Amino acid sequence: MALVYGAACGFAQAPLWRLYFLFCHANEIYLSFFVAVWLAAAAVGALLARPLPASFAPWLALFPAASPLISSIAVYPLVSGGVQGVVPTLACAVAIATLLAAPSALASGALFSLLARRVGAAKLYALESAGFAAASLIVDLLILPHYGNAAALILAGAASLWLVLRLSPHLYITITFSALALILSLTANMAAFALLISHHQGKFLSVSHTPAGPVVRTRQRNGETLYLSGSPVVPPDLVANITAPLVRPPVLVIAHDPRPFKKAFKNRGIRRFVALSLEPALAPFVDAQPKEPRHFLTHTESRFRSAVVCLSAPTTVAAGRFVNRSFFRLLRRRADFVIVALAAPSGMVSAAYRDFAASVLRAFGKPLFLNYQPMMGLVLISNRPLGGSDFASRSFTDSVSRSDAPAATILNLASQRAGITYSMLEVAGYAPIFLRSAACGWIVWAVFVGFCLFWALRGQQRPCAILTAGAASTFCHLSVFAAIQLRLGMLYALLATVSALFMVGVAVGAFIRRGTLFLSGPAGVAFLFVGLLTEGYVCGAFLLAASFCSGAALGVVFANCAREGSVAFALDMGGAVCGLMLFMLLLLHGFVGVGVALAGVWALCGFSLIRATGATGAT
User: Using CA atoms, how far apart are residues 286 and 267, in angstroms rounded to an integer?
Assistant: First the structure.
């Protein structure tokens, strides 16, 4: 029963999380809101269920089938009338996350509290984690590639049906609840699909679930439009027409949609060129080669006389993975003449955009020549003179030089921080203060660590160990999500797989229970950094290992320190919310700070665990 309960949670969460992924346009900070709501609601549900009798269990077992339907209906008014292609405001993102996640999480937390009376907290925690992991892998490997997100809701309904059959005491109750589970599952399936297509303008044509996110094709008056994770793919016609006279074959073109470049080049008699999409998942839709740009530049033996890259201010960590020093070095190594086209404001240059441009220019390195076209909203950066607009270009350069933003690198996320700040200011007119200063994050970290240390020294070592383990493991787990976006750009396809490995780690740690396995938590932090500094399959393997290790450490702490199931579960979820807050506040200020903060929380967790069990090898 515990395994099926975990599988039901996995099947119910996966489609809801991916719907939210679409609505927040894969923004990693906004993604953390969904996790926060899920964790907080699960903790509240577990505590509210403490006085409930066991007869409530069949009602709660309906949640995998019912809650996605409730969430889809509740969130529809918020997303159906939104501005297309624009990341939602902070308040809107929190509201959507709450409506999508809270119903499922409340019921799952309450059901955990009731089932823990039968199975035991530690055993239920381990089995639920294993079931969740299995469901997540099924969604990623079998359901998503062939049937899409909504099909997972059918399996959630089937899991509901099985739980009802096991928990219902009478035949007529079983029949009634089973019929409800099937009806709700099928209706939720249709509601989720309707919600998906309502988020896009124009006549809906098709949806394809790619590793980078759902690609939706719509037909509008001016032709066909593509949306990737809710954002329209805008053809760079202006950049293509400006750069076509400047380049010489063979040419390398890298853009989300390289079709306008191909047309402009052919009009000028250029036949030798290679076209790549910034998102390889878009390649079949935009007539590009299905190769990841960094991988192509690293392994190709070809030499290009010219290269054109079309970029814009990133709204996510993934969108900024090509705006850093290492990528520009790869470009210079393979091409003699490099042009980087940046979208720019057509009016006055704001401080946020100035910081973004400064991080890009300093990452590009020297020699550097710049052509700013204010009327066109375009900045051209090159390693050779471009000519034209001298006054505007000098004025732009002088403005950017006053910024203290560092050169963008993989670890400091300078371009992403400035780009996301600029995008939020453009959309909502404000940006959270934690994006501009890391002080907020470090103050919260110091308060959390100080409180937990005081709690542990006052004799509450077991609750403190669970709280800090929940915080550190979730912080590391979410950092793995961000690292996958940054290095691979395919979190949408790996959402459930990464979560599955984390939950497998939890199950392994809870079953083995040896205190020495706690060291896998700090090891996970080391694996995170190895993954960030490597490429390809090696990078992916280390990042997945980091998620598994953080889960294993959490499982060990929970198994050794949990006493009452509902309280321990609530402490775990509460700690996870704290870890999520630290992730949100510190991530965009660089992975070095993330590593330091993680190391401090894991150290405090180890201290509490040793004081609680007497020795690291206690069982």
Answer: 18
| 446 shares its domain with 422 | no
Q: Does residue 250 have a cis peptide bond before it, meaning omega lies within 30 degrees of 0? A: yes
Residue 28's pLDDT is 72
Count CB-CB contacts under 10 A for residue 582: 26
Residue 198 has pLDDT above 60, yes or no: no
pLDDT 10s digits, 94-130: 888 888 788 888 888 888 888 887 777 777 777 888 8
Query: pLDDT by residue (tens digit) across 214-273?
Result: 787 777 777 777 877 767 777 888 889 888 888 999 999 999 899 999 899 888 888 899
**What Å distances lie between residue 471 and 54, 117, 452, 477, CA to CA?**
30, 26, 11, 10
| pLDDT of 73 | 62
Q: Are residues 384 and 517 in the same domain?
A: no
Structural domain that includes position 330: 235-428
User: Is the link from the previous residue into 367 a cis peptide, with omega within 30 of 0?
Assistant: yes
CATH at 285: 3.40.50
* Same domain, residue pair 460 and 594: yes
- Residues 522-574 have pLDDT tens digits of 999 999 999 999 888 899 899 999 999 999 999 899 888 877 767 888 888 88
Pair 371, 469 in one domain: no
Q: Burial code of 408-425, b = ≥16 C-beta within 10 A, e = fewer?
A: bbbbbbbbbbbbbbbbbb
**Boundary-marking domain end, from 201, 225, 245:** 201
- Examine the domain organization and report whether 43 and 118 are in the same domain: yes
The pLDDT value recorded for residue 493 is: 73
As a whole number of angstroms, the distance between CA 339 and CA 345 comes to 19
What number is the average pLDDT over the span 176-187?
59
Taking every pair of Cα atoms in the chain, the longest distance, rounded to a whole number of angstroms, is 83
Indicate if 186 and 245 belong to the same structural domain.
no
Q: Examine the pLDDT at 149 and tell me if it is beyond 80.
A: no
Sequence letter at residue 386: L
Q: In what order do the strands lie in the sheet with 369-373?
A: 273-277, 251-255, 304-311, 335-343, 378-382, 369-373
Pairing between β-strand 304-311 and β-strand 335-343 as defined by DSSP bridges: parallel
Measured in residues, the chain has a length of: 619
- Same domain flag for 393 and 442: no
| DSSP calls for 117-170 | HHH-HHHHHHHHHHHHHHHHHHIIIIIHHHH-THHHHHHHHHHHHHHHHHH-SS
Query: HEC profile for 238-285?
Result: HHHHHHCCCCCCCEEEEECCCHHHHHHHHHCCCCCEEEEECCHHHHHH
| pLDDT given at position 553 | 92
Same-domain check for residues 419 and 459: no
